[in-house]
Amino acid sequence: MVAQIAAEAAESAVEHGMTPGEYILHHLTFWQNHKPANVVDFSVINIDSVFWSVLLGVVACGLMWLAARKASSGVPGRFQAAVEFLVEFVESQAKGIVHNAKSRKFVAPLALTVFVWIVFMNTMDLLPVDLLPALWQKLSGNPEAHMRVVPTADLSVTMGLSISVLLLCLIYNFKIKGVGGWAHELVSAPFGTSKNPVLAVILGVFNFAMQIIEFVAKTVSHGMRLFGNMYAGELLFLLIAMMGGAWGSLGVGGSLMLAIGQVLAGFAWAVFHILIIVLQAFVFMMLTLVYIGQAHDSH
């Protein structure tokens, strides 16, 4: 079924005169509120990313709420047992990283939400690449309408998540260490300070610069790691789907071999991609805990 949908869409693209590059570019173009100019324009919104991320967030939270609502003290069902295992796992990770019990009351549920939400967003990559875009084109009546359904393959989404973690780190630095304590840490770590006024100023400048670089580097790498992996996965699924565009152009034997190759390649990459989907959500969650945990620690 997956191969058939991909093949039909790819064949349709060929019939309409689209080259493989144009086909891929069409799938990698966002549905936006207006066409961006050649300069940075923060008024441009990727509507599809916002829609799918919010929808999947509501679904993820709804499933967690449903599990909590149906939880019982008796023998748990499979769904309840799976959710309980996940909650206990995240809680144990939070205890080992964030040592402030009061903070964990917020941080642990946050980490759980982040993990489940990202898993749901990443899983959209397993859908046939032409399924939802083709449905949207029919519903909108526009054969050239754009629709990207993997929110984590959008850099603005992943960077938005990482910037949110950064803001939480700044809040906890201020809350746990106070204004004076955090200000002293910004100018005294990692190189320390000195009793010599001139040397103390020089070290303070270097320390502050290193602190800012550390915050920026952690935030950028946090968002880019998730984006890079999911974007690469989405691109590879598109390349596999393009194999269907050559059906019928290589003769009976060639088309049959290409069809078998597309099915096998799609299945193999989908199975492997399941690991990437969960692993990237886990890495993002763990880094969230680590960064917030660091905000509680003094240098």
Compact description:
This protein has 299 residues and is mainly alpha-helical. It has 9 helices and no strands.
Rounded mean pLDDT is: 88
**Terminal CA distance:** 56 Å
Number of domains: 1
Strand content: under 5%
Nearest-angstrom radius of gyration?
24 Å
Low-confidence blocks of residues: 1-7
Proportion in helices: over 70%
Order of secondary-structure elements? HHHHHHHHH
Number-wise, the strands total 0
What best-fitting shape do the alpha-carbon axes yield? globular
- Please tally the helical runs, counting DSSP H or I stretches of 4 or more residues: 9
Largest sheet: none
Class per helix and strand makeup: mainly alpha
Main attributes of the structure:
mainly alpha; 9 helices; globular; 299 residues
Model description:
The chain is mainly α. The protein has one domain (about 1-35, about 45-295). It contains nine helices and no strands. Helix 3 (about 45-70) packs across helix 5, helix 7 packs antiparallel against helix 8 and helix 8 packs antiparallel against helix 9 (about 250-295). It is globular and about 75 Å long. The N and C termini lie far apart (about 55 Å).
Write the layout of secondary structure elements.
Elements (H helix, E strand, L loop, with lengths): L1 H14 L4 H8 L19 H23 L8 H20 L3 H23 L7 H10 L14 H34 L8 H46 L8 H46 L3
